[in-house]
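Technical note accompanying the year-one report. For the benefit of new consortium partners, we illustrate the data format agreed upon in the data management plan: each record pairs a sequence with a structure-token string. No post-processing was applied to the example shown here.
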Amino acid sequence: MKIIDFRSDTVTKPSPEMWNMIKSMNNSKLGDDVIGEDPTVNELEEKAAKIIGKEAALLVTSGTQGNLVSLLSQTNPGNEILLEEKCHIVGHEVGSAARIGGLMVRTYPSNRGVPSIDHLQDLIRYKEDIHEPATTLISAENTHNFHGGAILKPEILRDLKNFAQKNELKFHLDGARIFNAAVGLNTDVTELTKHVDSIMFCLSKGLSCPVGSIVAGSKEFISKARKFRKMLGGGMRQAGIIASFGLVAIEPNWIKRLEEDHRNAKLLAEGLKSFEHPIKIHNPDTNIVILEFLKTPKIFKILTELGKEGILAFTISNKKIRFVTHYGIHEDDIQYSIDKIRNVLNRYNYE
């Protein structure tokens, strides 16, 4: 049976070019990264910093670790941080900001990731008040996962930067899929990153590496982040084997390949919109398609039936299924999937 795996762009496998990079490696390209002596890791970090428009960068094991070292490096225990209510840090990073960072999390609502600046201003707690935790950092997510891969445009990030500066806050960007945002807008990624103090982006999602993420910012910030990475068990030794995949992943032609994922997401969304079922399909900005049921479904039964048809996906609520397109899914897989999803929904009786 044919399997089409829409669960996440983390299920990608390395490209032939990535494997060729591994095959060309030898011991001269490896060293102990904890003491800064792995030449391949150093090359990746320098290349990533340049591409993303920051002074320095750091290879970390995951996006979750990257976000946490970014928060730890720019706050103190007891500080309060502002996070979007449906963001990954709040819902899918195991409460690490509170448990490990000792940080109070205050959430803000948004319109597909875009907040009201006036509302944000009302959330600020001031350092001078001895009764309240000081608000010291704001974070945004781009693209926004649970808003269907929604893009935060440069002008939104500029407004958030101005808000942060006005209130003496650091501005962190969870840019796990920042290159999807740049490709979706047909703009240089630095137009999105120049407004933030720190950014994390994933190598292991749409860029198809087997492991790893990058944190970038000022040299001072990265120096602190490196120490917190060590604290969290992220200090790897001959990590150039991992970094070599990343060197291929951030090549311009590989980043441009994300356009294919976006086209496939649009094809999938258009196909699902043709169904005569009580559903809503959210228009994708990038590579994430949200199918929302307008009547209460037995959603796990539907997922099980989809799985039996070879279509794998995840729920993001009791009414929404998320489909993520990525490297390894082709245009002909999209039409195959549309037919299979239609078959399952045709057999389902809505309540």
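Partners are asked to follow this layout when depositing records. The chain has 15 helices and 13 strands.
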